[in-house]
Amino acid sequence: MNEYQFIAPFYDLLLTPFMRSIRRNVLEIVLELQPENVLDVACGTGDQIRLLSKSGINAVGVDMSESMLNVCRKSNPASDCLLQDATALAFHNHCFDLVMISFALHETEWESAGKILEDIYRVLKPSGHLLVVDYTDFRKTPFYVRQTIRTIEFMAGQRHFQNFCRYHHKGGLDTLIDKEKFYTVASSHHASRSIALQLYISLA
Ligand SMILES: C[S@@+](CC[C@H](N)C(=O)[O-])C[C@H]1O[C@@H](n2cnc3c(N)ncnc32)[C@H](O)[C@@H]1O
Questions:
Q1: How many A from CA of 73 to the centre of ligand 1?
Q2: Residues 41-87: pLDDT tens digits?
Q3: Contacts of residue 119, Cβ cutoff 8 Å, sequence gap at least 6
Q4: In 3-state terms, what secondary structure has residue 46?
Q5: pTM value?
Q6: Does the C-beta of 100 come closer than 6 Å to ligand 1?
């Protein structure tokens, strides 16, 4: 995937200031759960992995973009940052206590997003936790925030923008998540309610 080739070196510089409170929220949840092992699916530059490792939590990261992984490896020399397609994760069944995925489901094809969640379920231990950070429905989001997000997503390219629009049109994570496999434990909102952090427990 070359989509991130040019943006990868600047990704953290551009986005870290906006991500800070979300990353901290993720860290707080992970620290509270104290999982034995963590997988960050579509980890990108590994910004979240770096924050976790500062607090003694070692996470494995997987991503499809070699450019993003190169940044990830540089900033997380002690972590495994692996080139993998999240629709077919190369891990055994039921081997992770906690899996997280942030800002990736909205940009993938709808069917692929479903497959990613299925494969996450497969690699999660029974009663393991899934943490998803992504856009939520914009009904309570101020117009100017909505428009800013739409502009950013538009600039990310045609395929990216189409997937973002379809994700919203179809009802996002709420539609995508299989409620027979995942039970909502907690949720919080960020960025004027445009972004949701959802914590699920995997049902056996
Ligand atoms: C917007 S970035 C988010 C990166 C990171 N999770 C974060 O919160 O900053 C989306 C990432 O998802 C990755 N991605 C998209 N589809 C993927 C797939 N099927 N398998 C693995 N990575 C994928 C992209 O390569 C990109 O690095």
A1: 15
A2: 999 999 999 999 999 999 999 999 999 999 999 999 988 999 999 99
A3: 86, 87, 88, 89
A4: coil
A5: 0.96
A6: no
The first and second tokens of residue 103, run together, are 């800002």
31 lines ligand 1 (CB under 6 A): no
**85 close to ligand 1 (CB < 6 Angstrom):** yes
Domain boundaries, the chain: 8-202
142-184 per-position pLDDT tens digit: 889 889 999 988 988 899 999 999 999 999 999 999 999 999 9
- Do residues 87 and 59 lie in contact, with contact meaning Cβ atoms separated by under 8 Å? no
Q: Which two tokens stand for residue 66?
A: 């070699």
Options 3.40.50.150, 3.30.2350.10, 3.20.20.70, 3.40.120.10; which CATH number does 8-202 get? 3.40.50.150
